[in-house]
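> forwarded from #structure-qc
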């Protein structure tokens, strides 16, 4: 996730209005636009991996594809589900998620990096997906709809933010699944391995605090959290469920009516 100074919304895209209507979110601009939520905080040093180098992010992180697939497999997805992809970046998880939720479901991708979302928007447009909503915002201030499940893929800095986690989990239905994956420190004696882990993740992680247990802040917020270490201890896959409580529908209720039902007024 990248934090930068606020910029104008991305150009209008052909896919956004269906997702806006289905999720009951107010239009931030004419139908079809990418949704600019609260602007990222300014004054934070740029991470060029998420800005200048966004166009090569997919190729640079292709070795992580197997863990992306395993991450999505942790979610008990069904047709019609609404899935939040936190720190969605270029949308590398979108296709596998959409294969399981179908056209009747919806994907909400939130990321602070304009450049990463431009790549994600091109991916969505090229495939003709009409049930994907992209939100440019820091996760802490993102305006989100109610969702069924959440995934955090390689989002260490977000997972260390209490405000970000509280905002996300407040919009997940009772019993919804939260899954996370990313890098972590291997055992302290694995000095050479940890040196490689540092080199691999340094372009993408702003602060390595908590890198020994990246899922730590999820433990007190989820039930039945399970963690499996992978990559010789240099990575992990974690999943748990949101405990029962009232979900605030801050961005409006879900609307799962069919796309051909015609335009509907977003409810507030």
């Amino acid at each position: 996730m990248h934090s930068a100074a606020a910029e104008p919304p991305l150009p209008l895209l052909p896919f956004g209005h269906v997702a806006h209507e289905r999720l009951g979110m107010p239009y931030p601009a004419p139908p079809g636009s990418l949704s600019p939520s609260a602007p990222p905080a300014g004054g934070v040093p740029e991470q060029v991996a998420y800005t200048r180098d966004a166009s090569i992010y997919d190729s640079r992180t292709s070795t992580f594809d197997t863990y992306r697939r395993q991450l999505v497999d942790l979610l008990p997805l069904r047709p019609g589900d609404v899935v939040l992809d936190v720190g969605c970046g270029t949308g590398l998880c979108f296709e596998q998620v959409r294969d399981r939720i179908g056209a009747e479901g919806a994907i909400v991708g939130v990321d602070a990096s304009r450049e990463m979302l431009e790549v994600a928007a091109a991916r969505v447009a090229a495939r003709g997906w009409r049930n994907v909503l992209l939100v440019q915002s820091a996760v802490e201030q993102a305006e989100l709809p109610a969702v069924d499940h959440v995934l955090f893929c390689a989002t260490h800095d977000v997972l260390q933010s209490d405000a970000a986690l509280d905002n996300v989990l407040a919009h997940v239905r009772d019993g919804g699944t939260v899954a996370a994956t990313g890098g972590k420190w291997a055992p302290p004696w694995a000095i050479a391995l940890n040196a490689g882990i540092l080199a691999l993740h340094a372009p993408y992680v702003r602060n390595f605090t908590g890198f020994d247990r990246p899922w730590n802040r999820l433990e007190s917020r989820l039930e039945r959290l399970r963690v499996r270490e992978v990559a010789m201890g240099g990575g992990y896959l974690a999943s748990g469920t949101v405990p029962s409580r009232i979900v605030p529908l801050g961005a409006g209720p879900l609307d799962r009516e069919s796309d051909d039902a015609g335009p509907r007024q977003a409810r507030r």
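QC bot note: The chain has one domain: 16-245. The beta strands are 35-36, 82-86, 106-111, 132-136, 149-153, 177-183, 223-230, 235-241.
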